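Customer escalation, tier 2.

The customer says the design service returned an amino acid string that "doesn't look like it belongs to this structure." They asked us to rerun it and document both sides in this ticket. The original structure tokens are below, unchanged.
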């Protein structure tokens, strides 16, 4: 690149179904200002993330993912720095020499079944929520560690690294625990932004397993000589701590014009909520199953986890395994013409967490609630998308009610921003305008934090988001149609969730 080109930053963005290494260039371009010519993203490498079941346990293929990271960094060429983000809650255990003690267990593995009751016997849910403000999910790290108690691996472990911290450790040889991801473990107090020792002590969790906390923007080491050789980098390359929970980076990548916005980070999960200055830790918030995860620049991500496009992905996988592969584009075209709100399900129903048989499970949920069973793939897809739009509506309404913060627009970012039907249905369901894009919000947030650390851009989150609005194409969806039908459907789903 010519000398006037903006500096390049490599975002390692690991999702539940694939990993990416994305090259971002951020800074002043030919016009001398940060703008369209000063921000660009290029996906240099994408690789699959395929879990492996061994001995009855579902694992992540973490070495395969690391190989994909190295391949991507080699394709990226010389960069100013590297940042790593991924999904939350899962971890790898290391022995005293730093060697990995087995492949990390997948959060969808069944080992945590029944663990919530054991934890609740020690820390009743209201008490646990008062200490951590975290939404109950059966695979939160506290439940995984409780399930692993007494196992040889945990007994031999000298270090516990969350997934993005594990990748960073292999790249640099320097261990740390990035705060936004640590906040998803249910071991952090969001008010102090530090470990909750009352939780750890009550559950017998050794916090010395975790290396020191670090916040986005802090240094996370430099690429090891062997890593530089493997990736073709001839100069020292710093690794920068970013919002290593991919949702924390995605929220940085929301191109909002002011504070009165809701976001929905869509992908395998939909994470819908608000960006706040302080956590909301109330009994009403706990009962609504809202979480207070930590964000970049001292913010709080007040949100609810929703099953997301996992429902659609698993339907497609099931149909393909049955010899009936469908093109997603055709399914969406048919779903757009299908009868709206014919059948809707609770997207948070635990029956949808595990893989396999998703169309059959959706049919069972419809049958159990006295609704018409989808007759074909198109009607199943319409049921999924209507149900997700209703889940988005419920989360946005609940977040406003519980926080006291109003919303004038909803930003849909991540892979689901490609799905125009889902975005329009979300606008219709919420009765609010929806701004769709960017699809690579996590990578953009990752790159922007790196760029700010390197001095290529300056300012707070509002300044970074102004850059995004200037540089990126966005799609706008206005709500259409009467709200009565959505209100009735929302009441039906609420009855399902409560019944």
């Amino acid at each position: 690149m010519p000398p006037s080109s903006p500096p390049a930053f490599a975002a390692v963005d690991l999702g539940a179904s694939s990993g990416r290494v994305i090259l971002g260039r951020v800074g002043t371009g030919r016009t001398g200002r940060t703008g369209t010519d000063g921000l660009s993203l290029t996906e240099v490498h994408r690789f699959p993330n395929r879990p492996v079941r061994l001995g009855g346990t579902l694992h992540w293929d973490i070495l395969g993912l690391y190989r994909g990271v190295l391949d991507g960094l080699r394709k990226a060429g010389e960069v100013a720095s590297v940042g790593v983000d991924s999904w939350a809650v899962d971890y790898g255990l290391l022995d005293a020499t730093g060697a990995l003690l087995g492949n990390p267990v997948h959060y969808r593995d069944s080992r945590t079944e029944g663990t919530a009751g054991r934890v609740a016997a020690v820390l009743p849910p209201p008490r646990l929520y008062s200490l951590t403000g975290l939404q109950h999910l059966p695979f939160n790290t506290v439940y995984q560690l409780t399930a692993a108690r007494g196992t040889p691996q945990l007994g031999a472990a000298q270090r516990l690294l969350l997934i993005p911290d594990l990748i960073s450790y292999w790249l640099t040889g320097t261990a740390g625990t990035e705060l936004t991801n640590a906040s998803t473990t249910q071991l952090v107090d969001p008010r102090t932004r530090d470990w909750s020792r009352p939780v750890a002590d009550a559950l017998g969790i050794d916090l010395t397993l975790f290396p020191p906390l670090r916040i986005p923007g802090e240094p996370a080491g430099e690429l090891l000589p062997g890593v530089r050789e493997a990736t073709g980098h001839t100069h020292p390359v710093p690794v920068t701590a970013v919002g290593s929970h991919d949702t924390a980076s995605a929220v940085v990548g929301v191109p909002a014009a002011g504070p009165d916005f809701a976001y929905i980070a869509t992908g395998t999960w939909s994470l819908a909520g608000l960006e706040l200055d302080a956590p909301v830790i109330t009994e009403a918030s706990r009962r609504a199953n809202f979480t207070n995860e930590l964000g970049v620049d001292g913010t709080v991500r007040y949100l609810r986890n929703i099953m997301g496009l996992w429902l659609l992905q698993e339907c497609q996988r099931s149909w393909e395994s049955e010899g009936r592969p469908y093109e997603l584009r055709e399914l969406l075209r048919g779903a757009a013409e299908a009868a709206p709100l014919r059948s809707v399900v609770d997207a948070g129903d635990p029956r949808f967490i595990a893989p396999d048989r998703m169309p059959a499970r959706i049919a069972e949920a419809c049958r159990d609630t006295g609704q018409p069973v989808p007759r074909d793939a198109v009607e199943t897809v319409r049921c999924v998308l209507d149900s997700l739009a209703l889940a988005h509506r419920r989360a946005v309404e609940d977040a406003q009610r519980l926080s006291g913060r109003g919303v004038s627009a909803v930003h849909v970012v991540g892979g689901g921003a490609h799905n125009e039907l889902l975005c329009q249905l979300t606008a219709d369901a919420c009765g609010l305008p929806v701004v769709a894009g960017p699809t690579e919000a996590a990578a953009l947030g990752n790159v922007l934090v790196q760029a700010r650390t390197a001095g290529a851009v300056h300012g707070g989150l509002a300044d970074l988001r102004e850059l995004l609005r200037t540089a990126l194409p966005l799609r706008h969806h206005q709500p259409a149609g009467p709200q009565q039908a959505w209100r009735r459907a929302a009441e039906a789903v609420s009855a399902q969730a409560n019944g």
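Tier 2 assessment: The sequence is consistent with the input. Residues 436 and 475 are 5 Å apart (CA to CA). The chain is about 40% helix and 20% strand. Sent an explanation to the customer and offered a walkthrough call.
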